[in-house]
């Protein structure tokens, strides 16, 4: 979709791909730094006019970044709480926290997730990300410990289990860019994690 300069047409192209997914499967979409929304966090849902084709899909649920969503709940089961965050603050911690840097967090972003779960905040350092202050509450606090913590942004596929929390770093569908080549980044395009909710085990499917 990088060859489509018009943002509306990009979202329309995405909706065409997503429409191939069976309608009984819910698709939860949170924004990221390449979407047509503000970079300052928390990032709101995608614009209803620009992403109308996605909003019109019956099985699509739009959320902000970060968001806490509950899936598969029923009368007899509380479901799973999923914390979704694009991951803009991770670049700061991968570069500035020595333990993370020495453990090559740029290749395995899940260790940054573990670090931030311990802090109970996705940007506990003032300059870690651009954010909009709220005088009533801090929307970047991890108030409720989730069952699943999902991030994107890093173009690396990885997963781990930390204190009974499934941590998943999603990959991308974009080949290595010139920027990544210059920075020495090695993306994992087309690697899709699939979490078995019964066993809590993650299988990675390669669509590359």
Helix segment tally: 6
Q: Mind telling me the C-alpha Rg?
A: 17 Å
Gap between N and C termini: 15 Å
Order of helices and strands: HEHEEEHHHEEEHEE
Helix content class: 10-25%
How does CATH name the architecture of the largest domain?
4-Layer Sandwich
The shape is globular
- Structurally, how many domains make up the residues? 2
Order of the strands making up the biggest sheet: 3-4-5-7-6
In the predicted model, the low-confidence regions spanning at least 5 consecutive residues are none
Query: How much strand?
Result: 15-25%
**Alpha-beta content class:** alpha/beta
Walkthrough of the structure:
The structure is a single chain. This protein is of the alpha/beta class. It folds into two domains: 1-63, no CATH class; 66-206, Purple Acid Phosphatase, chain A, domain 2 (4-Layer Sandwich), CATH 3.60.21. Helix content is 21%, strand content 20%. It has helices spanning 7-18, 52-55, 90-96, 98-102, 110-119, 178-183, and strands spanning 27-29, 60-62, 67-71, 80-85, 148-151, 158-162, 165-169, 191-195, 202-206. The strands form three sheets. A five-stranded mixed sheet has the order 3-4-5-7-6, with helices on one face. Strands 1-2 form a two-stranded parallel sheet. The model has no long low-confidence stretch (mean pLDDT 94).
């Amino acid at each position: 979709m990088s060859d489509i300069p018009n943002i509306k047409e990009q979202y329309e192209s995405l909706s065409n791909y997503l429409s191939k997914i069976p309608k009984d499967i819910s698709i939860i979409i949170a924004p990221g730094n390449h979407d047509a929304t503000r970079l300052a966090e928390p990032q709101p849902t995608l614009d209803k006019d620009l992403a109308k084709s996605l909003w019109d899909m019956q099985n699509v649920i739009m959320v902000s970044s970060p968001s806490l969503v509950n899936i598969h709940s029923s009368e007899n089961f509380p479901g799973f709480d999923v914390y979704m965050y694009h991951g803009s603050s991770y670049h700061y911690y991968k570069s500035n926290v020595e333990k993370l840097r020495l453990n090559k967090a740029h290749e395995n972003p899940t260790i940054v997730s573990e670090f931030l779960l311990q802090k109970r905040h996705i940007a506990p350092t003032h300059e870690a990300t651009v954010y909009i202050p709220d005088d009533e509450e801090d929307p970047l606090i991890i108030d409720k410990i989730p069952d699943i913590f999902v991030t994107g942004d890093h173009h690396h596929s990885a997963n781990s289990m930390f204190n009974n929390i499934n941590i998943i770093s999603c990959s991308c569908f974009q080949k290595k860019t010139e920027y990544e080549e210059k920075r020495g980044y090695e993306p994992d395009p087309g690697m899709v994690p699939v979490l078995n909710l019964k066993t809590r085990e993650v299988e990675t499917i390669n669509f590359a």
